């Protein structure tokens, strides 16, 4: 039997020989979908082989969010976690100093942010090099990634991105705005109010390649082929990312060579750390609300950390399911209230600094 790589190579060979014109678009779409599916299969198999942990790779998620530091060996990941948290991760001037996942906890603005230091990520990681599969599976579980390299190896960012993409991780990308409704019969329908670059017939061919033979596909963006594959695939994760450049103390003129947004730090000397933490807070979209008991004056004594988009119902549930079940009325104070003590619906979204009383 052919290996997955050999099957992909065969299809690529067919694609190279296929002329591009209107009549072959559907076929080409289906072939590219086949390749994308084979890559998914490879990822699933390697996930099973990689064994999802063991040897310190499975770390319980704790705190309000989990941030994972990804970077090539010796970028300074362990130096950074030691600087940010109570962790004592081994630091040394050679590659693969860290061989397991080292957790640490950062408390900031009432939030507990779990930080994970992992072994260096190298080219070929998704095929298992340097325990790459385990490392990437930790990265998949992050709420936020810090992708970090050092000032002398800026080009390492491209390699990191390649490995992360190959592991089904989409960085700083919104999930595709595609609604898929499967049905039992009736064929396929494609709906969109937006002009699409890909023809409807091609979209249907691709859906069928993913095993969707009947149903409706509603596109709410002008979809690219890769994002269409992402929409059909089940193993994608969408993780916000901050780009970090470390060891700027070694290269005072580093700025000249770099475009794009990044945070410059020296994990060792401690510069830029405060900026980095602020960016982490911003990217995690935390919102602090204050719980005020029925018999208390309005105050800011009991903070609860929530996420942007969550509701007052979520606040009650975070306190506890029993608490939530017993409360019928919620009143708010602060700048988001029309007047102090306004009674609002449990569907009201949380806002920074909101004071909340459940009755
Ligand atoms: N000049 C300078 N050196 C640094 C800085 N941060 C870390 N280093 C040094 O870089 C080397 C590697 O640091 P580590 O923190 O062990 O790097 P790592 O990314 O955890 O490495 P692995 O665990 O092997 O993947 C050590 O010698 C550190 O002292 C920095 O900001 N400036
Ligand atoms: Mg390390």
From TrEMBL:
Any one Gene Ontology molecular-function term assigned to this protein's record: GTP binding
Keyword Membrane: no
NCBIfam families per record: small_GTP
SUPFAM superfamilies: P-loop containing nucleoside triphosphate hydrolases
Cross-referenced InterPro entries: Beta-grasp_dom_sf (IPR012675), DRG (IPR045001), G_OBG (IPR031167), GTP-bd (IPR006073), GTP-binding_2 (IPR031662), P-loop_NTPase (IPR027417), Small_GTP-bd (IPR005225)
Record-annotated OBG-type G domain positions: 65-285
Pfam families: MMR_HSR1, MMR_HSR1_Xtn
Cleaved signal peptide residues: none
Keywords, in A-Z order: Magnesium, Nucleotide-binding
UniProt name for this protein: OBG-type G domain-containing protein
